[in-house]
Amino acid sequence: MPNKTKKEKGSAKPGVTGGGSSNKSANKDAADANDEAAKHRAANASGHPPPAQLTKVRGTVPLVKKDKRQGSSRFNISKNRELQKLPLLKDATPAEREELMVKKLQQCCVVFDFVTDPLSDLKWKEVKRAALNELVEYVTHQRGVLTEAIYPESVHMFAINMFRTLPPPSNPSGAEFDPEEDEPTLEAAWPHLQLVYEYFLRFLESPDFQPNTAKKHIDQKYVMQLLDLFDSEDPRERDFLKTTLHRIYGKFLGLRAYIRKQINNIFYRFVYEKENHNGIAELLEILGSIINGFALPLKEEHKNFLLRVLMPLHKAKSLSVYHPQLAYCVVQFLEKDPSLTEKVLRLLLKFWPKVHSPKEVMFLNELEEILDVIEPGEFQKVMVPLFQQLAKCVSSPHFQVAERALYYWNNEYIMSLISDNAATILPIMFPALYKNSKAHWNKTIHGLIYNALKLFMEMNQKLFDECSKQYKEERQKEKEKVKSREDAWERVEGKAKQNPMFNEVKRVSFNDSSVAMDLEDGEEMRDSSELTKEVNTEAVAGVGKPAKPLIRRKSELPHDAATIKTLTTYKRADDYLTSSNEMNS
Protein backbone atom coordinates (compact mmCIF):
# COMPACT_ATOMS: atom_id res chain seq x y z
CA MET A 1 0.00 0.00 0.00
CA PRO A 2 1.80 3.20 -1.09
CA ASN A 3 2.37 6.13 1.26
CA LYS A 4 0.05 9.09 0.83
CA THR A 5 0.97 12.70 0.38
CA LYS A 6 0.42 15.16 3.22
CA LYS A 7 -2.88 16.29 1.74
CA GLU A 8 -4.17 12.74 1.80
CA LYS A 9 -3.09 12.16 5.40
CA GLY A 10 -6.18 13.84 6.72
CA SER A 11 -8.49 11.80 4.51
CA ALA A 12 -11.72 10.59 6.03
CA LYS A 13 -11.55 7.28 7.82
CA PRO A 14 -14.24 4.64 7.65
CA GLY A 15 -17.07 5.76 9.87
CA VAL A 16 -19.50 2.85 9.75
CA THR A 17 -20.32 1.73 13.25
CA GLY A 18 -20.01 -1.97 13.65
CA GLY A 19 -20.84 -4.90 15.92
CA GLY A 20 -23.04 -4.23 18.92
CA SER A 21 -21.09 -3.87 22.14
CA SER A 22 -21.85 -6.04 25.12
CA ASN A 23 -21.43 -3.01 27.35
CA LYS A 24 -24.43 -0.75 26.64
CA SER A 25 -23.62 1.84 29.26
CA ALA A 26 -20.16 2.37 27.78
CA ASN A 27 -21.66 2.82 24.33
CA LYS A 28 -24.01 5.42 25.82
CA ASP A 29 -20.97 7.21 27.22
CA ALA A 30 -19.40 7.04 23.77
CA ALA A 31 -22.45 8.67 22.20
CA ASP A 32 -22.79 11.35 24.90
CA ALA A 33 -19.96 13.54 23.59
CA ASN A 34 -20.71 13.37 19.86
CA ASP A 35 -21.43 17.11 19.77
CA GLU A 36 -18.21 17.92 21.58
CA ALA A 37 -16.20 15.68 19.26
CA ALA A 38 -17.83 17.31 16.23
CA LYS A 39 -16.72 20.72 17.55
CA HIS A 40 -13.15 19.43 17.96
CA ARG A 41 -13.11 17.98 14.44
CA ALA A 42 -14.46 21.25 13.02
CA ALA A 43 -11.82 23.19 14.95
CA ASN A 44 -8.99 20.97 13.69
CA ALA A 45 -10.26 21.14 10.11
CA SER A 46 -10.41 24.94 10.22
CA GLY A 47 -6.94 25.31 11.78
CA HIS A 48 -8.20 26.68 15.12
CA PRO A 49 -7.58 25.25 18.59
CA PRO A 50 -10.66 23.51 20.05
CA PRO A 51 -12.49 25.79 22.52
CA ALA A 52 -12.48 24.89 26.22
CA GLN A 53 -15.70 23.41 27.58
CA LEU A 54 -18.00 25.70 29.55
CA THR A 55 -20.06 22.92 31.16
CA LYS A 56 -19.20 19.40 32.29
CA VAL A 57 -22.63 17.93 31.47
CA ARG A 58 -22.74 15.14 28.88
CA GLY A 59 -25.92 13.40 27.85
CA THR A 60 -28.99 13.18 30.06
CA VAL A 61 -27.68 13.90 33.54
CA PRO A 62 -30.23 14.62 36.33
CA LEU A 63 -30.54 18.31 37.23
CA VAL A 64 -31.39 19.30 40.78
CA LYS A 65 -31.78 22.59 42.61
CA LYS A 66 -28.79 23.06 44.92
CA ASP A 67 -27.71 25.77 47.30
CA LYS A 68 -26.50 28.67 45.18
CA ARG A 69 -22.70 28.87 45.18
CA GLN A 70 -21.57 32.42 44.50
CA GLY A 71 -18.05 33.73 44.32
CA SER A 72 -16.47 35.35 47.35
CA SER A 73 -13.65 37.13 45.55
CA ARG A 74 -12.12 39.82 47.74
CA PHE A 75 -13.25 42.99 45.96
CA ASN A 76 -12.21 46.30 47.45
CA ILE A 77 -15.71 47.71 47.95
CA SER A 78 -15.80 51.48 47.40
CA LYS A 79 -16.79 53.59 50.41
CA ASN A 80 -18.67 56.26 48.48
CA ARG A 81 -21.05 54.30 46.25
CA GLU A 82 -23.65 56.98 45.51
CA LEU A 83 -23.53 57.54 41.75
CA GLN A 84 -25.11 60.40 39.88
CA LYS A 85 -26.64 59.56 36.51
CA LEU A 86 -24.70 61.41 33.81
CA PRO A 87 -26.06 62.63 30.44
CA LEU A 88 -25.93 60.22 27.50
CA LEU A 89 -22.86 60.41 25.27
CA LYS A 90 -24.97 60.69 22.13
CA ASP A 91 -26.68 63.80 23.53
CA ALA A 92 -23.41 65.59 24.31
CA THR A 93 -21.67 67.92 21.86
CA PRO A 94 -18.48 66.59 20.19
CA ALA A 95 -16.37 68.91 22.36
CA GLU A 96 -17.92 67.54 25.58
CA ARG A 97 -17.82 63.84 24.72
CA GLU A 98 -14.21 63.12 25.74
CA GLU A 99 -14.69 64.71 29.17
CA LEU A 100 -18.06 62.97 29.64
CA MET A 101 -16.57 59.60 28.64
CA VAL A 102 -13.76 60.06 31.17
CA LYS A 103 -16.34 60.83 33.89
CA LYS A 104 -18.31 57.71 32.99
CA LEU A 105 -15.16 55.58 33.12
CA GLN A 106 -14.30 57.04 36.54
CA GLN A 107 -17.87 56.35 37.67
CA CYS A 108 -17.45 52.71 36.62
CA CYS A 109 -14.47 52.42 38.98
CA VAL A 110 -16.91 52.27 41.91
CA VAL A 111 -17.05 48.64 43.12
CA PHE A 112 -20.23 47.26 44.72
CA ASP A 113 -20.93 44.37 47.09
CA PHE A 114 -22.72 41.46 45.39
CA VAL A 115 -21.96 38.75 48.00
CA THR A 116 -22.64 39.74 51.61
CA ASP A 117 -25.55 42.06 50.76
CA PRO A 118 -26.66 41.56 47.13
CA LEU A 119 -29.76 43.77 47.55
CA SER A 120 -27.81 46.82 48.69
CA ASP A 121 -27.24 49.87 46.45
CA LEU A 122 -29.57 48.56 43.71
CA LYS A 123 -30.21 52.05 42.33
CA TRP A 124 -26.50 52.87 41.93
CA LYS A 125 -25.65 49.39 40.66
CA GLU A 126 -28.12 50.03 37.85
CA VAL A 127 -26.49 53.43 37.12
CA LYS A 128 -23.10 51.69 36.73
CA ARG A 129 -24.59 48.91 34.60
CA ALA A 130 -26.25 51.44 32.27
CA ALA A 131 -22.99 53.44 32.00
CA LEU A 132 -21.01 50.31 31.10
CA ASN A 133 -23.59 49.29 28.51
CA GLU A 134 -23.42 52.75 26.95
CA LEU A 135 -19.60 52.70 26.87
CA VAL A 136 -19.60 49.29 25.14
CA GLU A 137 -21.99 50.56 22.45
CA TYR A 138 -20.11 53.84 22.07
CA VAL A 139 -16.66 52.26 21.56
CA THR A 140 -18.08 49.57 19.24
CA HIS A 141 -19.95 51.86 16.86
CA GLN A 142 -18.18 55.26 17.02
CA ARG A 143 -14.84 56.13 15.41
CA GLY A 144 -12.20 58.55 16.64
CA VAL A 145 -13.33 58.29 20.30
CA LEU A 146 -10.16 56.71 21.74
CA THR A 147 -8.21 59.87 22.48
CA GLU A 148 -5.04 59.88 24.57
CA ALA A 149 -6.97 60.78 27.74
CA ILE A 150 -9.18 57.66 27.37
CA TYR A 151 -6.34 55.11 27.49
CA PRO A 152 -5.24 55.48 31.16
CA GLU A 153 -8.86 55.72 32.35
CA SER A 154 -9.92 52.58 30.45
CA VAL A 155 -6.95 50.53 31.66
CA HIS A 156 -7.40 51.78 35.24
CA MET A 157 -11.15 51.06 35.22
CA PHE A 158 -10.50 47.46 34.11
CA ALA A 159 -7.83 46.99 36.79
CA ILE A 160 -10.03 48.34 39.62
CA ASN A 161 -12.93 46.07 38.70
CA MET A 162 -11.02 42.91 37.83
CA PHE A 163 -7.77 42.55 39.72
CA ARG A 164 -8.70 40.89 43.01
CA THR A 165 -7.90 37.96 45.25
CA LEU A 166 -9.65 34.82 44.03
CA PRO A 167 -11.31 32.48 46.55
CA PRO A 168 -9.73 29.06 47.13
CA PRO A 169 -11.44 26.15 45.31
CA SER A 170 -14.30 24.87 47.42
CA ASN A 171 -16.42 21.75 47.62
CA PRO A 172 -19.61 21.84 49.73
CA SER A 173 -19.23 18.16 50.63
CA GLY A 174 -15.92 18.90 52.32
CA ALA A 175 -13.84 16.68 50.01
CA GLU A 176 -11.00 17.98 47.86
CA PHE A 177 -12.24 20.07 44.93
CA ASP A 178 -12.33 18.01 41.72
CA PRO A 179 -12.27 20.12 38.53
CA GLU A 180 -13.68 17.20 36.49
CA GLU A 181 -16.75 16.66 38.66
CA ASP A 182 -17.56 19.58 40.94
CA GLU A 183 -19.75 22.52 39.99
CA PRO A 184 -17.85 25.78 39.41
CA THR A 185 -18.43 28.68 41.76
CA LEU A 186 -19.98 31.48 39.69
CA GLU A 187 -18.98 35.08 40.34
CA ALA A 188 -21.79 36.97 42.09
CA ALA A 189 -20.58 40.26 40.58
CA TRP A 190 -20.84 38.91 37.02
CA PRO A 191 -23.57 41.42 35.89
CA HIS A 192 -20.91 44.14 36.17
CA LEU A 193 -17.81 42.06 35.42
CA GLN A 194 -19.19 40.88 32.07
CA LEU A 195 -19.78 44.43 30.89
CA VAL A 196 -16.29 45.53 32.04
CA TYR A 197 -14.77 42.63 30.07
CA GLU A 198 -16.88 43.49 27.02
CA TYR A 199 -15.83 47.13 27.16
CA PHE A 200 -12.13 46.31 27.51
CA LEU A 201 -12.34 43.81 24.65
CA ARG A 202 -14.05 46.35 22.35
CA PHE A 203 -11.43 48.89 23.46
CA LEU A 204 -8.59 46.53 22.38
CA GLU A 205 -10.33 45.56 19.12
CA SER A 206 -11.24 49.10 18.07
CA PRO A 207 -9.75 50.24 14.72
CA ASP A 208 -8.68 53.43 16.55
CA PHE A 209 -6.66 51.51 19.18
CA GLN A 210 -2.99 52.57 19.23
CA PRO A 211 -0.65 50.02 20.90
CA ASN A 212 2.14 52.62 21.16
CA THR A 213 -0.09 54.80 23.34
CA ALA A 214 -1.52 51.90 25.35
CA LYS A 215 1.86 50.26 26.12
CA LYS A 216 2.56 53.05 28.64
CA HIS A 217 -0.28 51.63 30.73
CA ILE A 218 -0.44 47.90 29.84
CA ASP A 219 2.91 46.58 31.07
CA GLN A 220 4.33 43.29 32.40
CA LYS A 221 2.85 43.76 35.87
CA TYR A 222 -0.58 44.35 34.32
CA VAL A 223 -0.30 41.16 32.23
CA MET A 224 0.83 39.19 35.29
CA GLN A 225 -2.29 40.28 37.21
CA LEU A 226 -4.40 39.32 34.19
CA LEU A 227 -2.83 35.85 34.12
CA ASP A 228 -3.57 35.36 37.83
CA LEU A 229 -7.29 35.65 37.04
CA PHE A 230 -7.16 32.51 34.87
CA ASP A 231 -7.52 30.49 38.06
CA SER A 232 -11.10 31.78 38.43
CA GLU A 233 -13.66 28.98 38.79
CA ASP A 234 -16.20 30.82 36.64
CA PRO A 235 -15.80 29.48 33.06
CA ARG A 236 -17.46 32.63 31.65
CA GLU A 237 -14.71 34.79 33.12
CA ARG A 238 -11.97 32.49 31.83
CA ASP A 239 -13.54 32.66 28.37
CA PHE A 240 -13.34 36.47 28.36
CA LEU A 241 -9.81 36.38 29.81
CA LYS A 242 -8.71 34.01 27.05
CA THR A 243 -9.90 36.37 24.31
CA THR A 244 -8.54 39.46 26.12
CA LEU A 245 -5.05 38.00 26.61
CA HIS A 246 -5.04 36.77 23.00
CA ARG A 247 -5.78 40.32 21.78
CA ILE A 248 -3.03 41.78 24.00
CA TYR A 249 -0.58 39.18 22.65
CA GLY A 250 -1.48 40.18 19.09
CA LYS A 251 -1.27 43.96 19.68
CA PHE A 252 1.82 44.26 21.92
CA LEU A 253 4.87 42.66 20.26
CA GLY A 254 7.10 43.63 23.19
CA LEU A 255 5.00 41.58 25.63
CA ARG A 256 4.87 38.36 23.61
CA ALA A 257 7.98 36.69 25.03
CA TYR A 258 6.97 37.72 28.56
CA ILE A 259 3.45 36.29 28.15
CA ARG A 260 4.83 32.97 26.88
CA LYS A 261 7.31 32.83 29.76
CA GLN A 262 4.66 33.46 32.41
CA ILE A 263 2.31 30.86 30.87
CA ASN A 264 5.24 28.42 31.04
CA ASN A 265 5.65 29.24 34.74
CA ILE A 266 1.95 28.56 35.38
CA PHE A 267 2.32 25.17 33.68
CA TYR A 268 5.48 24.36 35.66
CA ARG A 269 3.71 25.12 38.96
CA PHE A 270 0.71 23.06 37.83
CA VAL A 271 2.79 19.99 36.89
CA TYR A 272 5.46 20.02 39.60
CA GLU A 273 3.86 21.78 42.59
CA LYS A 274 0.12 22.04 43.20
CA GLU A 275 -1.54 20.19 40.25
CA ASN A 276 -4.69 22.29 40.36
CA HIS A 277 -5.44 25.29 38.20
CA ASN A 278 -8.74 26.15 36.55
CA GLY A 279 -7.41 27.88 33.44
CA ILE A 280 -5.08 25.31 31.84
CA ALA A 281 -7.49 24.56 28.95
CA GLU A 282 -7.92 28.26 28.13
CA LEU A 283 -4.16 28.95 28.28
CA LEU A 284 -3.51 25.98 25.98
CA GLU A 285 -6.17 27.30 23.61
CA ILE A 286 -4.32 30.62 23.41
CA LEU A 287 -1.03 28.78 22.84
CA GLY A 288 -2.64 26.69 20.08
CA SER A 289 -3.31 29.83 18.05
CA ILE A 290 0.16 31.22 18.91
CA ILE A 291 1.90 28.02 17.75
CA ASN A 292 0.00 28.29 14.45
CA GLY A 293 1.81 31.57 13.82
CA PHE A 294 5.35 30.46 14.77
CA ALA A 295 7.92 31.27 12.08
CA LEU A 296 10.08 28.49 10.63
CA PRO A 297 12.58 27.17 11.51
CA LEU A 298 11.39 26.87 15.11
CA LYS A 299 13.53 28.54 17.78
CA GLU A 300 15.15 26.43 20.51
CA GLU A 301 12.90 28.22 23.01
CA HIS A 302 9.82 26.84 21.26
CA LYS A 303 11.23 23.30 21.01
CA ASN A 304 12.09 23.31 24.72
CA PHE A 305 8.58 24.52 25.47
CA LEU A 306 7.12 21.50 23.67
CA LEU A 307 9.37 18.92 25.32
CA ARG A 308 9.72 20.38 28.83
CA VAL A 309 6.36 22.08 29.36
CA LEU A 310 3.66 20.65 27.08
CA MET A 311 4.63 16.97 27.26
CA PRO A 312 4.81 16.79 31.11
CA LEU A 313 1.22 18.13 31.19
CA HIS A 314 0.20 14.59 30.18
CA LYS A 315 1.11 13.41 33.70
CA ALA A 316 -1.58 15.39 35.55
CA LYS A 317 -4.60 13.63 37.08
CA SER A 318 -7.01 16.17 35.57
CA LEU A 319 -5.79 15.62 31.98
CA SER A 320 -9.34 15.12 30.65
CA VAL A 321 -10.19 18.77 31.43
CA TYR A 322 -7.69 20.15 28.90
CA HIS A 323 -6.61 17.20 26.73
CA PRO A 324 -8.21 18.33 23.40
CA GLN A 325 -6.33 21.65 23.59
CA LEU A 326 -3.07 19.93 24.62
CA ALA A 327 -3.26 17.39 21.79
CA TYR A 328 -3.94 20.21 19.31
CA CYS A 329 -0.80 22.11 20.46
CA VAL A 330 1.39 18.98 20.18
CA VAL A 331 0.13 18.16 16.66
CA GLN A 332 0.68 21.78 15.57
CA PHE A 333 4.33 21.57 16.66
CA LEU A 334 4.86 18.32 14.76
CA GLU A 335 3.31 19.76 11.60
CA LYS A 336 5.74 22.70 11.90
CA ASP A 337 8.80 20.52 12.60
CA PRO A 338 8.48 16.77 11.86
CA SER A 339 11.97 16.12 13.31
CA LEU A 340 10.47 16.52 16.81
CA THR A 341 8.17 13.52 16.30
CA GLU A 342 10.52 10.86 17.72
CA LYS A 343 11.17 12.78 20.95
CA VAL A 344 7.47 13.56 21.42
CA LEU A 345 6.36 9.95 20.89
CA ARG A 346 9.03 8.58 23.25
CA LEU A 347 7.86 11.02 25.93
CA LEU A 348 4.24 10.05 25.30
CA LEU A 349 5.17 6.39 25.77
CA LYS A 350 7.15 7.29 28.90
CA PHE A 351 4.11 8.99 30.45
CA TRP A 352 1.68 6.27 29.29
CA PRO A 353 -0.80 5.51 32.12
CA LYS A 354 -0.50 2.11 33.76
CA VAL A 355 -3.80 1.78 35.67
CA HIS A 356 -6.02 4.64 34.47
CA SER A 357 -8.05 3.30 31.53
CA PRO A 358 -9.96 6.52 30.56
CA LYS A 359 -6.63 8.35 30.47
CA GLU A 360 -5.19 5.56 28.33
CA VAL A 361 -8.03 6.09 25.82
CA MET A 362 -7.09 9.79 25.67
CA PHE A 363 -3.46 8.87 24.94
CA LEU A 364 -4.63 6.56 22.13
CA ASN A 365 -6.74 9.40 20.66
CA GLU A 366 -3.76 11.76 20.70
CA LEU A 367 -1.40 9.11 19.33
CA GLU A 368 -3.65 8.60 16.31
CA GLU A 369 -3.70 12.37 15.66
CA ILE A 370 0.11 12.35 15.73
CA LEU A 371 0.31 9.34 13.41
CA ASP A 372 -1.99 11.17 10.97
CA VAL A 373 0.75 13.78 10.39
CA ILE A 374 3.90 11.65 10.91
CA GLU A 375 6.51 11.33 8.16
CA PRO A 376 7.39 7.75 7.08
CA GLY A 377 11.04 8.24 8.09
CA GLU A 378 10.08 9.40 11.59
CA PHE A 379 7.61 6.53 11.93
CA GLN A 380 10.35 3.95 11.37
CA LYS A 381 12.39 5.40 14.26
CA VAL A 382 9.65 4.75 16.83
CA MET A 383 7.54 1.93 15.39
CA VAL A 384 9.00 -0.81 17.61
CA PRO A 385 8.25 0.74 21.05
CA LEU A 386 5.04 2.20 19.63
CA PHE A 387 3.58 -1.14 18.56
CA GLN A 388 4.85 -2.84 21.70
CA GLN A 389 2.62 -0.42 23.60
CA LEU A 390 -0.27 -0.96 21.16
CA ALA A 391 0.06 -4.72 21.69
CA LYS A 392 -0.39 -4.14 25.44
CA CYS A 393 -3.45 -1.99 24.74
CA VAL A 394 -5.00 -4.67 22.52
CA SER A 395 -4.52 -7.11 25.41
CA SER A 396 -6.10 -4.72 27.94
CA PRO A 397 -9.02 -6.23 29.91
CA HIS A 398 -10.71 -2.82 29.71
CA PHE A 399 -12.66 -3.22 26.48
CA GLN A 400 -12.66 0.50 25.59
CA VAL A 401 -8.84 0.59 25.61
CA ALA A 402 -8.63 -2.54 23.43
CA GLU A 403 -11.38 -1.24 21.12
CA ARG A 404 -9.73 2.18 20.68
CA ALA A 405 -6.37 0.58 19.87
CA LEU A 406 -7.93 -1.78 17.31
CA TYR A 407 -9.65 1.13 15.52
CA TYR A 408 -6.17 2.16 14.31
CA TRP A 409 -6.61 -0.57 11.69
CA ASN A 410 -9.43 1.50 10.14
CA ASN A 411 -7.11 4.47 9.52
CA GLU A 412 -5.95 4.40 5.90
CA TYR A 413 -2.74 6.37 6.43
CA ILE A 414 -1.68 4.31 9.46
CA MET A 415 -2.40 1.14 7.48
CA SER A 416 -0.14 2.38 4.67
CA LEU A 417 2.67 2.90 7.22
CA ILE A 418 2.06 -0.57 8.71
CA SER A 419 2.04 -2.14 5.24
CA ASP A 420 5.44 -0.64 4.38
CA ASN A 421 6.90 -1.95 7.65
CA ALA A 422 4.91 -5.16 8.08
CA ALA A 423 8.04 -7.31 8.53
CA THR A 424 8.82 -5.45 11.77
CA ILE A 425 5.29 -4.74 13.04
CA LEU A 426 3.49 -8.04 12.46
CA PRO A 427 5.81 -10.14 14.69
CA ILE A 428 5.22 -7.61 17.50
CA MET A 429 1.43 -7.52 17.15
CA PHE A 430 0.70 -11.15 16.23
CA PRO A 431 0.96 -12.74 19.73
CA ALA A 432 -1.43 -10.17 21.28
CA LEU A 433 -3.91 -10.47 18.41
CA TYR A 434 -3.80 -14.28 18.33
CA LYS A 435 -4.16 -14.70 22.09
CA ASN A 436 -7.05 -12.24 22.45
CA SER A 437 -8.94 -13.45 19.38
CA LYS A 438 -10.39 -16.11 21.69
CA ALA A 439 -9.38 -15.11 25.20
CA HIS A 440 -10.82 -11.59 25.49
CA TRP A 441 -14.10 -11.43 27.40
CA ASN A 442 -15.76 -8.91 25.04
CA LYS A 443 -17.27 -10.22 21.80
CA THR A 444 -16.84 -6.90 19.96
CA ILE A 445 -13.08 -7.13 20.50
CA HIS A 446 -13.06 -10.58 18.85
CA GLY A 447 -14.53 -9.14 15.64
CA LEU A 448 -12.08 -6.20 15.60
CA ILE A 449 -9.12 -8.53 16.18
CA TYR A 450 -10.17 -10.78 13.32
CA ASN A 451 -10.42 -7.68 11.11
CA ALA A 452 -6.86 -6.69 12.05
CA LEU A 453 -5.59 -10.24 11.43
CA LYS A 454 -7.34 -10.31 8.06
CA LEU A 455 -5.68 -7.02 7.02
CA PHE A 456 -2.27 -8.40 8.04
CA MET A 457 -3.01 -11.60 6.13
CA GLU A 458 -3.92 -9.64 2.97
CA MET A 459 -0.74 -7.56 3.26
CA ASN A 460 1.66 -10.49 3.32
CA GLN A 461 0.29 -14.04 3.53
CA LYS A 462 3.78 -15.60 3.68
CA LEU A 463 4.86 -13.41 6.60
CA PHE A 464 1.55 -14.09 8.34
CA ASP A 465 2.10 -17.86 8.05
CA GLU A 466 5.67 -17.50 9.37
CA CYS A 467 4.47 -15.51 12.40
CA SER A 468 1.76 -18.09 13.06
CA LYS A 469 4.30 -20.93 12.89
CA GLN A 470 6.82 -19.07 15.06
CA TYR A 471 4.16 -18.24 17.67
CA LYS A 472 3.08 -21.89 17.76
CA GLU A 473 6.68 -23.03 18.29
CA GLU A 474 7.27 -20.49 21.07
CA ARG A 475 4.15 -21.54 22.91
CA GLN A 476 5.16 -25.16 22.63
CA LYS A 477 8.58 -24.32 24.11
CA GLU A 478 6.86 -22.45 26.95
CA LYS A 479 4.65 -25.45 27.70
CA GLU A 480 7.71 -27.73 27.72
CA LYS A 481 9.51 -25.31 30.04
CA VAL A 482 6.59 -25.32 32.47
CA LYS A 483 6.44 -29.13 32.35
CA SER A 484 10.19 -29.33 32.98
CA ARG A 485 9.87 -27.04 35.99
CA GLU A 486 6.98 -29.06 37.42
CA ASP A 487 8.98 -32.29 36.98
CA ALA A 488 11.97 -30.75 38.78
CA TRP A 489 9.77 -29.79 41.75
CA GLU A 490 8.32 -33.30 41.86
CA ARG A 491 11.86 -34.74 42.04
CA VAL A 492 12.75 -32.33 44.83
CA GLU A 493 9.61 -33.34 46.72
CA GLY A 494 10.40 -37.05 46.17
CA LYS A 495 13.86 -36.66 47.68
CA ALA A 496 12.42 -34.65 50.58
CA LYS A 497 10.06 -37.51 51.41
CA GLN A 498 13.08 -39.80 51.89
CA ASN A 499 14.23 -37.63 54.79
CA PRO A 500 13.16 -39.17 58.16
CA MET A 501 12.25 -35.68 59.42
CA PHE A 502 9.76 -35.15 56.57
CA ASN A 503 6.65 -36.18 58.51
CA GLU A 504 7.59 -34.04 61.52
CA VAL A 505 7.83 -30.88 59.47
CA LYS A 506 4.61 -29.21 58.41
CA ARG A 507 4.21 -29.88 54.72
CA VAL A 508 3.82 -26.71 52.65
CA SER A 509 1.93 -27.34 49.47
CA PHE A 510 3.21 -25.32 46.54
CA ASN A 511 0.71 -24.75 43.80
CA ASP A 512 2.54 -23.92 40.62
CA SER A 513 -0.59 -22.79 38.81
CA SER A 514 0.28 -19.13 39.44
CA VAL A 515 3.65 -19.63 37.79
CA ALA A 516 2.39 -21.68 34.88
CA MET A 517 2.17 -19.94 31.57
CA ASP A 518 -1.24 -18.44 30.98
CA LEU A 519 -2.31 -20.91 28.32
CA GLU A 520 -6.01 -20.25 28.69
CA ASP A 521 -8.36 -23.12 29.30
CA GLY A 522 -9.30 -24.65 26.01
CA GLU A 523 -6.81 -22.61 23.95
CA GLU A 524 -5.95 -24.60 20.90
CA MET A 525 -2.81 -24.08 18.89
CA ARG A 526 -4.23 -23.65 15.41
CA ASP A 527 -2.03 -24.16 12.39
CA SER A 528 -1.72 -21.51 9.67
CA SER A 529 -4.40 -22.87 7.34
CA GLU A 530 -6.93 -23.25 10.18
CA LEU A 531 -6.21 -19.72 11.39
CA THR A 532 -6.60 -18.28 7.88
CA LYS A 533 -9.95 -19.99 7.48
CA GLU A 534 -11.10 -18.80 10.90
CA VAL A 535 -10.05 -15.20 10.25
CA ASN A 536 -11.95 -15.08 6.96
CA THR A 537 -15.04 -16.50 8.65
CA GLU A 538 -15.04 -14.40 11.82
CA ALA A 539 -13.92 -10.99 10.47
CA VAL A 540 -16.73 -8.45 10.77
CA ALA A 541 -17.34 -6.44 7.62
CA GLY A 542 -17.46 -2.67 7.95
CA VAL A 543 -16.55 -2.24 11.62
CA GLY A 544 -15.55 1.41 11.72
CA LYS A 545 -14.30 4.04 14.08
CA PRO A 546 -16.89 5.66 16.37
CA ALA A 547 -17.68 9.33 15.90
CA LYS A 548 -15.99 10.31 19.16
CA PRO A 549 -13.24 9.25 21.55
CA LEU A 550 -14.46 6.69 24.06
CA ILE A 551 -14.05 8.45 27.40
CA ARG A 552 -16.18 7.74 30.43
CA ARG A 553 -16.85 10.29 33.14
CA LYS A 554 -16.00 9.08 36.61
CA SER A 555 -19.63 9.25 37.70
CA GLU A 556 -22.95 10.79 36.75
CA LEU A 557 -23.64 13.15 39.62
CA PRO A 558 -26.71 15.41 39.62
CA HIS A 559 -25.90 18.91 38.39
CA ASP A 560 -27.21 22.22 39.68
CA ALA A 561 -29.98 23.37 37.33
CA ALA A 562 -29.30 27.09 37.91
CA THR A 563 -25.56 26.75 37.13
CA ILE A 564 -26.19 24.72 33.97
CA LYS A 565 -28.79 27.23 32.74
CA THR A 566 -26.43 30.15 33.39
CA LEU A 567 -23.55 28.54 31.50
CA THR A 568 -25.62 27.27 28.55
CA THR A 569 -27.16 30.70 27.95
CA TYR A 570 -23.74 32.39 28.03
CA LYS A 571 -22.56 33.55 24.58
CA ARG A 572 -18.86 33.36 23.82
CA ALA A 573 -16.99 36.48 22.72
CA ASP A 574 -15.22 34.37 20.06
CA ASP A 575 -15.81 30.77 19.01
CA TYR A 576 -12.22 30.30 17.84
CA LEU A 577 -8.98 32.20 18.36
CA THR A 578 -7.09 33.21 15.24
CA SER A 579 -3.32 32.97 14.84
CA SER A 580 -0.90 35.80 15.58
CA ASN A 581 2.04 35.54 13.20
CA GLU A 582 5.42 35.53 14.91
CA MET A 583 7.79 38.07 13.42
CA ASN A 584 10.51 39.26 15.75
CA SER A 585 9.18 37.79 18.97
Report on the architecture of this protein.
The structure is a single chain. The protein is mainly alpha-helical. It contains 24 helices and two strands. The protein has helices at residues 6-9, 24-32, 34-46, 94-107, 122-141, 150-162, 190-205, 211-214, 220-228, 235-251, 256-274, 280-292, 300-310, 319-336, 341-350, 357-373, 376-394, 399-406, 412-420, 422-439, 443-459, 461-497, 528-538, 561-569, and strands at 63-64, 559-560. The protein has a two-stranded parallel ribbon with strand order 1-2. Helix 19 crosses helix 20 (422-439). The longest helix has 37 residues, at 461-497. It is elongated, with a radius of gyration of 31 Å.
Provide the descriptors you would attach to this structure in a database record.
24 helices, 585 residues, mainly alpha, two-stranded parallel ribbon
